[in-house]
Request: fold
Amino acid sequence: MDTVDADKTHRAHAIIEQVHADLKAGPLAHLPSGVFTANSAWLVLAVIAFNLTRAAGVIADKAGRLARATTATIRRTLIHVPARLARSARRITLHLSEAWPWQTAFDRLFIATHAPPPVAANRPPPQPRHDRGPRGRPGCDARNSPLPAPRHRASITPARPTPAHRWIEA
Reply:
């Protein structure tokens, strides 16, 4: 092994050691019981939460402090949000602080997670299959079917919030 490979291996070990330290300082410090299956489920859920929190930090602040932060820092800055909830006309509104330093990172995360899915590019439309009936089953006739006719709903695209909004409606 040459020095470049040794350096890559050493850096990879350094990253995984940080992950282990982060997990041990958080959810793995409080394993629930002496039962193996309960601890196994706790470990799986802890790793899922860790990965989701890290992904949220990278989405919110790609090149900044949150991309390299521990889960405790991400939780303190993005999840424990200083805000006020208000209810009016069957809507819940989250009023955010005017001087909150993590507002742009929170807006970036909110827009990324509430955006509609991307449209598939250059995909040809599906061709109808002639060996099937109108319901998609062989020999099925819609007029004689015991099933109700399918309803078509109009898709509603939610309005994307801008960073100028100081509130979020749910």
About this structure: The longest helix spans residues 36-60. The helical segments are 3-25, 36-60, 71-79, 103-114. Residues 17 and 67 are 17 Å apart (CA to CA). Residues 1-80 form one domain.
